[in-house]
Structures are given as structure tokens and as C-alpha cells.
Amino acid sequence: MNILDLLGRDAALFTRDIADNEAYLSETVRDGRFMVIGGAGSIGQATATEIFRRNPRALHVVDISENNMVELVRSLRSTIGYGDGDFRTFALDCGDRAFDALMAAEGEYDYVLNLSALKHVRSEKDPFTLMRMIEVNVLNTISTMQAARAAGARNYFCASTDKATNPVNMMGASKRIMEMFLMRESLTQPVSTARFANVAFSDGSLLHGFNQRLAKGQPISAPNDVHRYFITPQESGELCLMSCLLGENRDVFFPKMSEALRLTKFSDNAVRYLEARGYTPYECDSEDEARDRAAELIAERRWPVYFFASDTTGEKDFEEFFTDRETLDLDRLNGVGIIKNDPVFDTDKLDRFLSAIAAMRDAGTWDKPEIVALFKDMIPEFDHKETGRYLDSRM
């Protein structure tokens, strides 16, 4: 199955930009020492692959998932093979003291890339997972930025999300708050970031779920009114690498609007996916019908699908990469737009946020409304969409 066909386009987004800058990218990687945090996730693996294929002097990958780390190594060995540099993986939590010890022991890194994140809208369904999301998306970003500075890094890259633009969910808002802290840290540590579209078939994504449903003989379910931008895993790695190595301090890279990048509906992707797999989608009227008739329909090369109107908390009807309040550079690169940021931040507000989170954690108890209120204090325009329904209640 051609992933570009599935996404309804016939061209990769960043081919020209990579070709135009390949000499610089390859030379910089070849001479550099890289730390990739969260390097066993979908975007992390894609980014680590882009670095590894250019034969870095050192590439150290940190992730809490041992199993995904094994897959990263197998994938690299089975495609690229081996390089001349120091390639090692570490099954660590970047918020743990063992990570601090690693950074201290290994000395200087030229580039630190942080791809770790709680990325799902469903992460806001309860106050406990929500606090974990804050710890990963905000607090760990601050601590790893400080570790990068201590390691003498030339640049610190951290992935953001398009959902940080005019956020309507807590995940997107947490990333917008993360961007605020990036601005403060940029005074003493050069930083860059990228706002992503959905990465097709990334772990836990709806398209990844299509593969799982097919393997298990289960119906496919998708909203028919949610529009998203999609990029391929390789494009996600290329965007991270370009932002890290080509970006100036405080730059935010994003996929530029073009004929190759267009909004598509999840339900349309589901139809294209099944047709590419040799099945005719059969649209059911309910989840019950889709489950009950699965075996019968699949035997006839028809796959049960249930398409529905989205009604879960935090879902945005469409996605955007920038606001009309941000300054853009749309000329430097062909397929990439760049948001140019001044180091604007509110020190009192940032400190107030950290103090409030610390107090909640010390007390050992908190609820979602007080965290939502804290987020709205940080982002007055935050339009949190609470419906009382969450993705875990969907098939």
C-alpha cells in the first residue's frame, strides 16, 4: 500500500528542501553528537533514522519503551546497516535521575532533540493522566532543556503540535504552554520546534488502528466530520531534522500549505485504506451492527465500517499551524513555513504555573477543573471544549 495514495496525494512534501540542503545536513550530522529523547516513538524513530542514515559521530537514543527501542535497532540494522559512529540506546525515563546521570557521564552533546510527549487528546480524560501529561509535555521539557544547556548543546529541539494553535483541548494547550517556556529558556539555550500535522500510522493513531483492526478482523470506526492534515513518518523525521539543524533560535517549522498538503477526513482515509487492501467498505448504521456482522461481511470481502459525527471532548473540526498574530517566513524553504518568534514571555505567569503544579503534586490530590482554570490563566483565549464524552467511549 502506497502511503501517499492513502493520503490522497502523489508527492512528498520536503523532497526539494532536503535536496537543496543535503550537503549541509550531512556534514553537520557527520560531525555531530546527538541525543534523541523519546526516540523509540513513531516520530522519534523517524527522526533517529534520518540522523543515523547520515552517519553521525554519536547518536544516543533514550526512551522508556524497551520493546519499541528493540524495533528501532532492528529497523536500522535491517535497512541502513551500520555506521562509523557511537550508536547506543538507553531504556530510561528522561524525567528520572538515571537520565541526569547519563547526561553527566557522556559529556557534551551538540544537539538534543526531545520527541517524548503524551500526544493523545484522550490523555485529558482524568486528572491523573492529565498531570502525567503536564509532567511529560512541560516539566520534562524544561528539565531536558536545562540538561542540554549543561551539555553545551548548539541547539535544543522539541516537537510541538498543530493543536497548540488556538488550542481547544488540554493536550494542545499543554504544548502551547511548553512553547512559552521555550521562549524563556531561549535566552540561554538556542531552541527550535515544529508544529506537526497528524503523522500517518504513528503508534496509537486512528490510521495505526486501521492496521490493528484488519489484523484482528474487527470493524473500522471513524468520524465523518473531522478534517486533518497528514504527513508521512519519513516527512515527520525530515521536518524535525530541518528544524533542529536549519532553524534559528525560537523558530517554529511547519508544513507549508500546498496542493500536496490538504485537509482530509478520517472516514475518507478509511475508505481509501480498505480499498487499497482489497476490501469494499460496508457502512453500518451502528456499532452493534458493525460488530455483529463483522465475520459475515469480511468473508465476502466487505469490511464493516461505522462512521459517526464527532462528539468527544477536545476535538477540533479542522487544524491550523499558525495564528494571525504570528510572524511568518514563507520564502526561505519550499515546503516548510517558519514562525519567527521574539523572546516574549510573562515571567510571573510562568513561575505561577510551576508553583501551582508543584503545590498540587505535593498535596497529592487535584482535580481537572483546577488544572483547566490554571491553563486558562496561562492562555486566556483557551477555548476548552468539554462534552462529557471521551475517545475511550468510542469503538
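[next item in queue]
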Amino acid sequence: MGLWRVFYADWQMECCGTPFSAGDEVSWPLLLDEGGRTLGGGWAGALGEITAAVEYVRDDGAGIRVLRADDGLVVALNADPEDEPAGRGRGRGRGRDRGMRAGTGTGSGGDGTGARSGPPVARGGLLTVERHSARWPETTGTVRTIHLVHQEFAETAPGSHTWEPVPASRSLEAVDRSPKWFGESRVGVLAELYVPGSRT
């Protein structure tokens, strides 16, 4: 069993999420933002570390690397830079293949499904809900707490009309239910997700 903190971005919820309350059982596709760089970083206390062997799953020909922890947590990894064509940046979760290239798996059927590579690895970062990409197994658990995430933004240069998050301005507000619509300065929710059991 485990207790994990998960960030659910406002745009993910507003587009195709379902609001939830403390005490609800939910199933979410999770992505690991290694290093916790979402919204400029500064997520001390919300970062988690997962130790598991890398497993490969496929969705419509896309290969996805996932970690499946013993407590039932399943989290996809961004694309490994070694798997990406030259000049392509790390995937950010909006429709990109963030796993291995097609055909590189070693599963018994040759499609890479369920293949594991080597000993367990430890990866740390911010767990995020990802609903706009290839599909992988979801994590099911019970929501223990919910906090609205408030974030201020600052113009990158006077008159630039380009804005960036100010991590030091982030604050949390305890709530009983996630909203569907967020509005100015509310950028999502941080939920504590209790994953109750071992994998089957």
C-alpha cells in the first residue's frame, strides 16, 4: 500500500476530467514528471520516488515505458532521450510517444507488451494525471485529501505578453471536492491518493 501525491492540472480536468471528492475511488493514467518541473518546479513535499523494473506497453503501435510499483501504482515515463530522434526534446504529455520506438520491445510476442528490462530502477518526480496521449494502465486508489493549487504568473519581460509561473508564489487551499472549472490563478489540484494493495 502507498500514499501518493498527484497533481491534476486545470486544463486536464476542464477538457475531459471528472470532478472527484475526498473519499472517492478513482482510476487515473499517471505520468511521472521527473524532477518536478511542472509550473516551474518548487514542488518540495509533493515529489515521490518509485522503484520498479521498467515495463513496456503498447497503444496503437506506440511503445510506452511504465513503472509498476508493488503497491499497485502504475506510472508512465517521459521518452528516454536515447529513444528520441536527434533534435527532439523530452515529451511533455500532449500527444507524444513517450516510450520506446515501435518494434524495440522484447516481449514473448515480439510486440514489447509486458517486457521488463533489467533490475528495478528508482525514479523521482511529480506524479501528474495525463489524459491527452497514448494509453497505459491506470492507477486505482482512494482520494484522501484535495488541495486547490494557486499559482501566480509574471511577465518574462515588460511588454512581452509572455508569462511564466512564479514557483515561490504557489499556495495550497484545502477543499473537499475538485472543481470542474478553475479560473484565474487556480491551476489544478494536488490530491493524496491511497493505493491500497499489491499488484496481481
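[queue empty]
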